[in-house]
Amino acid sequence: VTAAFNRISKHYEIRTVTKCRRYEQVFICYGPHDNQRLLLEYGFLASSNPHNVVNVDKDLLCNHILQKNKLMDRKMLFLQDEGLLG
């Protein structure tokens, strides 16, 4: 398929590159996206989305949440090693 916003019709269009009959049912696989991307790209949310995430700014985490935690350095290192910061 090809997918894009059509500026003339002002609709998001998904077109098949192979033939299908009129009114034939087709399926779209959106792939593993979090709800933010689904909403921004396609205009909907998935209520039980296993790929959903919450992005937290590193400065917010350091300055407000972990401020008084004695293990902050070790926790931040763990988050960095796991690729969860950035």
What are the key terms here?
86 residues; alpha+beta; 2 domains; 3 helices; elongated
Describe this structure in words.
One of its GO terms (molecular function) is protein-lysine N-methyltransferase activity. This is Rubisco LSMT substrate-binding domain-containing protein. It comes from Scyliorhinus torazame (Cloudy catshark). With 86 residues, this protein is α+β, with helices and mostly antiparallel strands. It folds into 2 domains: 1-53, no CATH class; 56-85, no CATH class. The chain has 3 helices and 2 strands.
Short description:
The chain has 86 residues and is an alpha+beta fold. The chain folds into two domains: 1-53, no CATH class; 56-85, no CATH class.
Order of helices and strands: EEHHH
Number of helices: 3
Care to count the β-strands?
A: 2
Proportion in helices? 25-40%
Unreliable sequence segments: none
Overall residue-averaged pLDDT value: 84
Side-by-side strand order of the widest sheet: 1-2
| Sheet of most strands | 2 strands, antiparallel
Instruction: Report the span from N to C terminus.
Output: 32 Å
Shape: elongated
Beta strand %: 5-15%
Domain count: 2
Could you say which structural class the secondary elements and strand pairing correspond to? alpha+beta
Q: In angstroms, what is the radius of gyration?
A: 21 Å
